[in-house]
Amino acid sequence: MSTTDSPASSQSGDAKGVAGTAAFSKFIAVLQLIADASTPPNIAKLVAASGYPRPTVHRIVAALQAEGLVAAVGGGNTFALGPRLVNLASRSWERSDLRIAAVDALMELRNTTSETVHLAVPSDGAMVYIEKLESPHAVRMASRIGTRVAITSSSVGKAWLATLTPAEREPLLAQAPRVRFTEHTMTDLDAIRDEIELTAQRGYAEDREENEQSIWCYGAAILGADGQAVGCVSVSMPMFRRQDDAQRSYIEPLLAACRTIAARLGPVSAR
Length: 271
What we know:
46% of the residues lie in helices and 18% in strands. The chain has 10 helices and 8 strands. The chain starts with 6 loop residues before the first helix and ends in a 6-residue tail after the last helix. The model is unreliable at 1-7 and 9-15 (pLDDT under 50). This is Helix-turn-helix domain-containing protein.
């Protein structure tokens, strides 16, 4: 990443008109780099990505660690988001109107299917789980609240994309990393487009072991009163537990849950 298009340069540029925010913007830029990294970055990577001098990055990371916003991992040489930041995010999600409106329907969906249920919203070109209800079975999902999943391979991502117009969708597809998580992950853009069209036609999405090996998911969008998606719900299960009658066992309860949540949100869109 060049210094001209780095988070550091854009953040400081936005803050030029506000006195006293330049230093704060540097902290936010480094924090954002750590949050966006696919693997925990070290100091050298943060220096290269931010364009800041190495001593500056050292001071910023040390201050973020002291506040619990960043934690050292991998023997102390790389960095990830810290427990305090995760806690703050969790509090925000817990208090969101969407989550509050959804929780009863999600519980009913989990109890009906006996499988793990997620509630997700879009975030910076991905989907993030803001609620998770565990399956009562012993074998469960490794995901957690705050987990980010790809929009092109997850059921919630496909369900979200299917609600967008082509003009809204294409920039997201062009920018989305097409990572092959498993042998089943689609990375060809035309194949992904076809999958999104199929999702739009039938009203639900499938993740056929595309995000995680041996895990199958069904996802659908929650539509607000204006017809725009405000979030997505998924039902996930290991392949060995997947029922043959998917329509009755998973899809119908999933779509019913999305309709119930939409009705509870009322006329005001949560988008």
